[in-house]
Amino acid sequence: MTPPGSRTGEDAEDLDVEEVLALVNDSSGHAARSPAAGGGTDGIPAPPRQDAHAPSERHRATPWPEARAVAERAARTAVRAARRAPVSVPLGAALGLTLATPLDALTDLPSFDTSAMDGWAVAGPAPWSVRDEGVLAGHAAAAPLTDGEAVPIATGARIPPDTTAVLRTEHGRTDDKGRLYPTRDVTTGQDIRPRGQECRTGDQLLPVGTLVTPAVLGLAAAAGYDTVTAVPRPRADVLVLGDELLTEGLPHDGLIRDALGPMLPPWLRALGAEVTAVRRVRDDADALHEAIGTSEADLVVTTGGTAAGPVDHVHPTLRRLGAELLVDGVKVRPGHPMLLARTTETQHLVGLPGNPLAAVSGLLTLAEPLLRILAARPAPEAYTVPLRDGVQGHPYDTRLVPVVLRGDQAVPLHYNGPAMLRGIAAADALAVVPPGGARPGQEAELLDLPWASGGIGVCFT
């Protein structure tokens, strides 16, 4: 027997994640963005554009906007292949998921006439004689009132039958005989929330594709739900590569602290993923092959090893696994050596550079659009903000620069080198700076950080 407030598989109308994603795009107007270059069908990346003026070793790198579009298309292909079904999730575990069925009211809200204020329920004209026993929230209905009668009532309590209005505590006075008088005019129905004021049973409260926020959880509970039907979280495994990394203490003897192991899992969760494993993998090709080849996650995220150094094993391992390389380098700074590969029909790998800010760049360039599609989350509205200060650009590449928001301007932060986290730790967003740079006052697209709240009062300028 289905518990009250639950949704069954039949209620989900046989929707799968691909259909939910289509509804999200239809309702939000954010269909997948087209790649910057022409060519390519859905799920098949268009060939990277080549820059005749750039150095030859940069020709295979994908322009930054196109790399994000490739990640979206790759995720759509995986969604079609996986045919994942929506899941029933308790309210306490649903935060951040995407609704796969509409949230329809299971009851009238409020479900009975309710007092909106503390005071007296009154019937007929004043003065009123007052009953001794009041009406409290959560109690059974009181006996009907007769004209000239009042009863003390608490906010949220059920209105007695035949009540004319609720008189607020501060708007009433009693005489020496205990009779109640209003100190201002009383209108019929005042301070009463009538049954069904907010919704009636069966009304659609929220459509498919709605992101579950704390307010959505509250509404679902009020409307009678114990669970919601949602798109399951995409699973992500994090592989932290490198023999030089310490997990505690101060750097010493050529060893450094691992910053990405603590940073990536919560960041991926903020992007909608369920992090199923965080593994440390030594600089060994066989160990990396085993770690990637045995992962059952939808997304594998690796750190470092994407260049061509003596212990950079990511490319050789992908070839050994027969993976399809979709993006091999992106024209963005920091983070140029990031990559995206399709390891199986339903699994992808995002290779992040080992430098921390470069890894953040890779997260927002490749992992964010891929996870957003897998989770059927609505795409954020693109927006621009003028830069307070000019930003030096790269000759050929997009730059992602940490900024804080101050009034109606974005202030670029110092400490924005590939290996630095001091700037991004204080940032509200990353500004997308086009090749050649940006002048003071120029509008720049911003990429919001998942937890940004409009500035934290720290500015390293």
TrEMBL record:
Record keyword Magnesium present: yes
Required cofactor(s): Mg(2+)
InterPro entries for the chain: MoaB/Mog-like_dom_sf, MoaB/Mog_dom, MoeA-like, MoeA_C_domain_IV, MoeA_C_domain_IV_sf, MoeA_linker/N, MoeA_linker/N_sf
Domain spans labelled MoaB/Mog: 237-373
Bias (Basic and acidic residues): 50-60
TM region positions: none
Pfam families found in the cross-reference section: MoCF_biosynth, MoeA_C, MoeA_N
Catalytic activity: adenylyl-molybdopterin + molybdate = Mo-molybdopterin + AMP + H(+)
Job of this protein: Catalyzes the insertion of molybdate into adenylated molybdopterin with the concomitant release of AMP.
Family to which this protein belongs: Belongs to the MoeA family.
Listed CDD domains: MoeA (cd00887)
EC number(s) on file: 2.10.1.1
Keyword field: Magnesium, Metal-binding, Molybdenum, Molybdenum cofactor biosynthesis, Transferase
Pathway note: Cofactor biosynthesis; molybdopterin biosynthesis
Region Disordered, residue ranges: 22-67, 174-193
Protein name (database record): Molybdopterin molybdenumtransferase
Top-rank taxon: Bacteria
